[in-house]
Amino acid sequence: MAGKRAITKQSLPDVIANDLRERILNGELAEGEAIRQEALAEEYDVSRMPIREALKRLNAEGLIQWANNRGGSVTKHSLKEIGEIFDLRMLIEVDLFRRAIPQMTSADFARCNEILTQMEASYDENDVGKWGILNYQYHSALYAASQRKLTNELLDRVNLQSDRYVRMHLSVMKQREPAKKEHRELLKLAQAGNVDEACDMLMRHIRRTKEQLLEMIVAKRAMEET
Q1: Among 74, 101, 120, residue at a domain's last position
Q2: CATH label of the domain that carries residue 67
Q3: pLDDT tens-digit map of 139-195
């Protein structure tokens, strides 16, 4: 955690939490990495109080494991937990998509298409961080017409846990073209009103990511241990 990071001196806990969250999601702060208030206070050039508040928020989100007096670390999920995160995504997202498709309007389709265009540009720019944000926005747009507020709030928390693994999958395994093709096909099937086929594809889309990701993490952790 070397060097200084310039931040806007407004709502410091929010600004710091947002920056730390992005550093965790993009892999700059790796799973299991130690989190120290003193080092962060020096890095952000602030007192410990806003750091402490930011860390409390990230702890509540499940991105770090934090104890005020004992320090903490970036959350390292077990393989079983990572699998569970993606299983939850399949359960929740397929249900939302099934409910949303019959209610989707031309405005919904236009919004999805707009995000997809931006996402495809991020592939060409090799901007994985931007892709991660746009991927979340795209899936949210696909399900927006379901009008299931509580379910979407639950999905937001699950997606926060899966985002760093999705980005890892994209950047390490170079899955841009399959993801690009599947995202376009999901929108095409939704526009055609093919509910069952669209939901089957969404299930395969998430399951493929899960299986490839778990295989990659097993190899990565084995290499780190040796």
Answers
A1: 74
A2: 1.10.10.10
A3: 999 999 999 999 999 999 999 899 888 887 776 656 667 788 899 999 999 999 999
Tell which of 74, 94, 116 closes a domain. 74
Q: Rounded CA gap, 198 and 201, in Å? A: 5
**Is residue 19 packed enough to be buried (19+ CB in 10 Å), middle (13-18) or exposed (0-12)?**
middle
H or E element at residue 205 = helix 195-225
Residue pLDDT, tens place only, 50-99: 999 999 999 999 999 987 666 789 999 999 999 999 999 999 999 999 99
Assigned token pair, 27: 């892999």
What is d(CA 134, CA 48) in angstroms, rounded to the nearest whole number?
33
Residue 153 lies in domain: 79-225
> Which of these, 64, 66, 146, lies nearest to 99 by C-alpha position?
146
Structure tokens at 9: 């001196």
1 occurs within a structural domain:
no
